[in-house]
User: Fold this.
Amino acid sequence: MKLPKKLKNRYLIIRHGESKANMAEIILSHPEEGIKEDYTLTAEGDNQVRKSIEGTKREGLLDKETIIYSSPFSRCKRTAEITKEVLGTKNEIIFDDRLRERWFGTLEKQHNSNYQAVWDIDKENPKHKEFEVESAQEVQERILSLVNDLENQYSGEKILLVSHGDVLQILQTGFLNQSPGSHREIPHLKTAEIKELK
Assistant:
């Protein structure tokens, strides 16, 4: 799936703030687990998001007209709620399942050092489903389908996408017209980091 050559909207992304799953150093990708408040942001994660949003608000990159789309996972939901509050936007947060975490199959709740094994295979084969993971190709297709829908729905808007590390790395490959398998070659987003997609 490809994006239109010329986009009608401006797209910004934010990776959720530091979460309790990050602190526990576990992979947490199952939708039923991800929505649980047990895995929301830490107090530090809340602070990270607040600082990031305040910074981009001062720069004029985000404002009260910004439209916020978010993963339904609790760590992103909380990130989106803080964003809405700091920006003072009246727009409701829109939760879209296509922004959910990449599914990591049999690695669920394993130590997060296991990500590397998946990423190493991604480079060679973006369609692989080792460990029963959702392939990088599948993630790219679902996330680009959202952007294409937003292009059909809006024009001239600033849209902030609140999501997860792998999903946002793979989204960037779509904007750069690269293979989804190359997602780790793009500087990876820190927690609560905001970036405009070009």
